[in-house]
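Anyone opening a protein record will find just a pair of labelled lines. A complete record is shown below as an example:
=====
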Amino acid sequence: MVSAARLAALIARHGRSVTLQLAGAGGTWASVPVLAHVAGYDAKALVADGTLQQGDREVRIAQAALDAAGASRAPRQGDRLSVDGKTVAIQSVDARALSGATALMVLRVRG
């Protein structure tokens, strides 16, 4: 089994810079720069899932990276993400745990 530290190291080594934009009170946004693994979905996933659309992407962010960047909270649906100079909407968030603690955030983004 991969440890949370190893997972964070792999994303840091092979990931790319993205900026989470976390919605706050009164229409404010907190920008949180982190490294993430970003990938598109293959055609089989688009057909099998039914909720995915062409152009949707999966973004994996280590919880350790969020903590190190000082994120005030976990990302959630309705937040935004800037990747490759484009701002996309977070459609869903799946928090993955290792040994009982959140280690990875898997986001589905669209836009």
Observations:
- Residues 8 and 64 are 6 Å apart (CA to CA).
- The domain at 4-110 is CATH 2.40.10 (Thrombin, subunit H).
